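Q: Got a minute? One more chain.
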Amino acid sequence: MRKIPGGSWIKSSHSYNFMNNKLNVKLYDLYGNKKFNSIIATPGRKYYNSNGKLKIHASVYFLILNMNKNIDRYSLLSDALNKLGCSYSRVEAIDGTDMENNNDCKRILKPKEELMGKKLTSIEYGEEWIYDGEIKNSFPGLSHYGHLGYKGLNLSNIKAFEIASKVNDDLRRQTELTTRSPGMLYDWFCILEDDSQMNAITHKKIINFIEDTANVDLDIVLLDARANGWGGTSGVLYNKKIINILLENLHPLSDFSIKNEEKYGMANLWDWKLSTFMKNSDLKFDTLPCVESGEFISTISSETI
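A: Always. Here it is, folded:
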C-alpha cells in the first residue's frame, strides 16, 4: 500500500507519479497484470484499486420522502436499505392538501417582503394573482388552486435539501468531539420517493457509478428507470457541493421559479423544474436509469387538480 500526495491511498500499486494534480499509476489486476491509469486527481480524496482500475472511495446518504399517511411505504424501503447497510433518514414529506397546518411549510414559505404586491402567474392555466405572503399564493408556475400534490413534492424536496445541507456538519461535529479527526463525510445525497425500489443490484450500480473516476465532476445523476432517467424523480443523486445552490434556486419563490414558465415554457412540476434548471445552468449531470417505482398508487397525480 502506497501513499499518494494529498492523503489518498492505493492498494497493490506498481508505480505512480503525482504531478500538477495529475495522477498516473500502474495497478495490478486480479491476475497480476499491470493496468495503466491516468486521471486528474483531487488531493484529499481516497482512491482504491478495483481489479486494476482506479476508483474513488465515495459515500452516499439516502433521504426518503414519506408522508405520515404512507408509513407502510417507508417500512418497505427502509428495510431494503438496512439490508444493504446504507445510511439514511426519513424526511416527513409535506402533504399538499394540508399545507396551511404544516409548520415546515410555514417555515419554508415564510413571507418574502421583497415580493409583496408582485403579480405571480400560471401561464398554462391562464391564472394570475398578487403575492401577499399567504401559502396558497406562493407557487408561481403551478395552478393557483390545484397541483396540490406537486406543491407538496416541491416543498418536500426543499426540506430534504435542508436536511442534507446539515448532515455533514453534524457528522463533523460529532466526529471531532469523539476522535478529533475530520471523519468520513458523505459525498453524495440520494433523495428517494417512497414508492422507489432498492435492491442489491440497483445499489451496486449506484456505488459503481459514483466511484468511477470518470464521474468525479458530476453534480446531479437522474436515477429514475423511466424514460432513460427523465421520466420522474423516484431517485436522484446530488453532489454535496451543490445542495445550497439547489436550495436557493429551486425554492417555490426563487427568481428561477418565478420566471421559469415564461422564460423556458415549463411549469414548475418538480421533475420539470429540476430538469429545466439542470439544462440551463452550469451544472454537470448524467443519467443512470436504475431505480424502479410504481408499486403504489401515486399520491401526486391523484392530488394534482
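A: The helical segments are 71-83, 103-108, 148-179, 200-211, 243-249, 255-264, 270-279.
Q: Perfect, thanks.
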